[in-house]
Amino acid sequence: MADDGVIKFNCNWSEEHLSITVPHELKLWRDKMHQLKLIGEYEHVQIGYGNISIKVDEGILISGTQTGNIYPIKSSDFALITDYDMENNQVTCKGKIKASAESLTHAAVYDADKSVKAIIHVHNKELWDRLIDKMPTSDRTVPYGTAKMANEIKRLFSKTNVTQEKIIIMGGHDEGIIVFGKNLDEAGEVLLKYF
User: Does the structure show a pLDDT above 60 at 1?
Assistant: First the structure.
């Protein structure tokens, strides 16, 4: 858990105001996840967990790294990923904060299924314990936020029914769960169905 929230990719970050508007719906869903304690902070180690993103014409709009403790979330707590390179473990982003440590994982899901436009990544031990290996589950040896995880996401999309289930249990990331959909409402409903 002490490894949670640590950026494991090369981050090319431009500190600047976002040139696009962060939709109210994105902030609303993120704050709903915070209220349910699915996004938050492990207070004893002061490390944030969970993140949310949407696919936009300009790239991927994602909550910033270590913003789990912030409530309510603000537009300045989001970053725009404008480019990424899985093979070279690199993310290019801009905003007042760096993109989430899970940026490559989000990018891999968007790449794997072009109909996906929203992703929510949460932590919940009880749900994780209940669903691991029953729902599409990533290899337990693959760490979060890495190019290896991006490749694992591709494997899940090609070898499992993840497209129908719209949920991934992160085997190598205790408590980590990803849900996705064509919009935030669909992704949120997938999660709430299990929660």
Answer: no
